[in-house]
Amino acid sequence: MLRQSGGRSIRMSRRSAQISMVFSCLGHAYMHAFTASYFVIVLALEVDWQLPYHELIELWTFGALLVGVAALPAGWIADRWSASGMMVVFFVGMGLAAIVCGLVDSSLALFIGLTSIGLFASIYHPVGIAWLVRNATSRGKALGINGIFGSVGVAAAGAAAGALIDLAGWRAAFIVPGVVSLVTGLCLAYFISRGMVVEGDGDRAQDAPPSRADMVRVFAILAVTMLVMGLIFHSTQTALPKVFDLRLRDVVGEGAFGVGAIIAFVYVVGGIMQVIGGYLADRMALKRLYVGAYVLQIPALVLVAQLAGTPLIAVAVLTVLLSVVALPAENMLLARYTPQRHRSLAYGVKFVLAFSIAPVALQIVSFVQERTGEFVWLFLILAGTASVAFVLSLFLPNDRKPVLQTVPAE
Asked: Radius of gyration over alpha carbons of the chain, in Å?
């Protein structure tokens, strides 16, 4: 009888882990879609509201700040309350905020709506990634799959927003995704209420504990490199739609869909490579993978600064690819050198760093575009910051490939 009870418990744990994986992946896609779609929507708002690009893009500044800053309290609450419950709040809150954005008629109201999106979007990374890591046995594989959904979210932001704008106007580009997120949150709440998603007491796969000195060294280095990666990610995500609008007009034509489709292509191709990044992170030294991604990023960003036409698309894919390939290794380093009981809080700190830099990225993009009408200096600045991250990453501990001992979740 005890054996049957134990078997049932393990099956329930596995089912809960599988459902958690599904909603974690959906959450990653939604979070990036909701925080990236405005960069395409703003192209339609320029025409509809007759306001300049730099003024409209700055409406997202505080929301972008909250995506980072609010991640820390979100992780703290999840560690003390419920990761799955916080994910329900994430889906429902972000969906309602997006619907509000689609109904407003003034810059102030849109600013409030975008700020609310940023607040609820801040929940995902510290909570959803820690939730995923806790339930995964092959962490690199799980993080790689999850990463694809994040890149698909960025890609869908461009394609879906562009298509909805051309078909039904910019309001639909807010409202339709908002309804989808709201329904997803209600579905997760249903699974929780039926006992199909439960909170686990520990990791399903465990590492040997690191020394305190290594924990301090790794976190200090990652604090800077994660800040740099955040600056590169947000600056690129913000600027690429306008870069393509300026340099690929003969390719994409008029309207928002052409630009959105190219953005979708760039992030889908780059995102698929995150599975390879996860595969490599399970099988090779994390330091080697992390350092390699940064050293290759430097020339890629210099080329984005200079190129136009089809070569620009290819190099944009490369720079996105290098960013996402590094993410599974980065998340695994953080998981390995952080106590499990503080995992969500640690990821909260990570995403405070990675996303609180977003307003700085927005201001740099706005500053460079307003004064030069282009983005050459933006990508040269980013290449310089990638050089700093490369040098610092050389001081990470030499690490053999992960050796995980699978244990059943309670």
From this structure: 21
Cβ atoms of 85 and 344 within 8 Å: the answer is no
The verdict on residue 410 lying in a domain is no
d(Cα 40, Cα 44) in Å, to the nearest integer? 7
- How many of the other CB atoms lie within 10 Å of CB of 270? 24
Measured between alpha carbons, how far is 278 from 327 in angstroms, rounded to an integer? 8
Q: Tens digit of pLDDT for each residue in 105-122?
A: 899 999 999 999 999 999
Of 146, 157, 384, 172, the residue nearest 266 (C-alpha): 157
Contact 277, 289 (CB under 8 A): yes
- Domain that residue 212 falls in: 2-402
Looking at the structure of the chain, the number of domains it has is 1
Beta bridge partners of 406: 205
Mark the ranges of the chain whose per-residue pLDDT is less than 70. Answer: 1-13, 135-138, 199-211, 252-256, 340-341, 399-410
Q: Is 396 helix (H, G, I), strand (E, B) or coil?
A: coil
Q: How many CA atoms lie within 13 A of 357 on its CB side?
A: 22
Query: How many C-beta neighbours within 10 Å does residue 6 have?
Result: 11
> Is residue 345 in a domain?
yes
Report d(CA 9, CA 201) in Å as an integer. Answer: 13
Predicted model pTM: 0.69
Distance CA 7, CA 175 (A): 44
CA gap 68, 247 in Å, rounded: 31
Q: With respect to residue 407, please indicate whether it lies within any of the assigned structural domains.
A: no
Can you tell me which residue has the tokens 């695994």?
Answer: 332
Over residues 290-329, the pLDDT tens digits come to 999 999 999 999 999 998 888 998 898 888 888 878 888 8
Task: Retrieve residue 348's tokens.
Answer: 């909260």
Which residue in 137, 191, 149, 190 sits closest to 14, CA to CA? Answer: 137
